[in-house]
Amino acid sequence: MDIHRGDRFDYMVSVSSAEASLSAYVKANFPDGDAKRTEKYVCGDMNTSIIRTQKGRTILLEHDVVNPRPYSRLNSISGTKGIFSDYPPRISSTLQAGRRFEERRLGND
C-alpha cells in the first residue's frame, strides 16, 4: 500500500461495542468472593476502525479477542481491477471483455 513510501495514514475513525463477554466469563467461572468478580471491564467486545490514507485508500480493521468464533484470517486487499484474499489464498480479477471476473484459488492444488 506504499505506507511511508509515497502514502501515509491520514486519520482513523474507531467505534467499540459494549462490553459483555468478559463479565459473563468471570461470572460463570469464578466463585463469589473471588477478586476477579470485582473487576470492571470497560473495553468493548468488538472494536472496528477505518483508517484512511492521504491518497484516499481505506483500511478496515476489526479487533475482537473475547467472542467465540471459528478460526479465520480475513486478510484481503482490493482495488479497481481485482481482489486478493488469504487463507485460503484466492484471487479474482477482471481479465477481458465478456467475462466480469475470473476467480481462482492459489496454492497446492
Strand order of the largest sheet: 4-5-6-7
- What is the alpha-carbon Rg in Å? 21 Å
Number of strands: 7
Q: What general outline do the C-alpha atoms trace? A: elongated
Order of helices and strands: EHEEEEEE
Structural class: mainly beta
Major sheet size, sense and barrel closure = 4 strands, antiparallel
The percent range for strand residues is 35-45%
Question: Which ranges are low-confidence, i.e. pLDDT below 50, for 5 or more consecutive residues?
Answer: none
Helix content: under 10%
Average pLDDT figure: 84
| Terminal CA distance | 29 Å
Number of helices: 1
Any overview of this molecule?
The longest helix has 9 residues, at 21-29. The model has no long low-confidence stretch (mean pLDDT 84). The two termini are 29 Å apart. The protein has 1 helix and 7 strands. It is mainly beta and 109 residues long. The strands form 2 sheets. It has a 4-stranded antiparallel beta sheet with strand order 4-5-6-7, with no helix packed on it. Strands 1-2-3 form a 3-stranded antiparallel beta sheet, with no helix packed on it. A hairpin with a 3-residue loop joins strand 5 (82-86) and strand 6 (90-93). It has one helix at residues 21-29, and strands spanning 9-16, 47-53, 58-63, 75-79, 82-86, 90-93, 102-105.
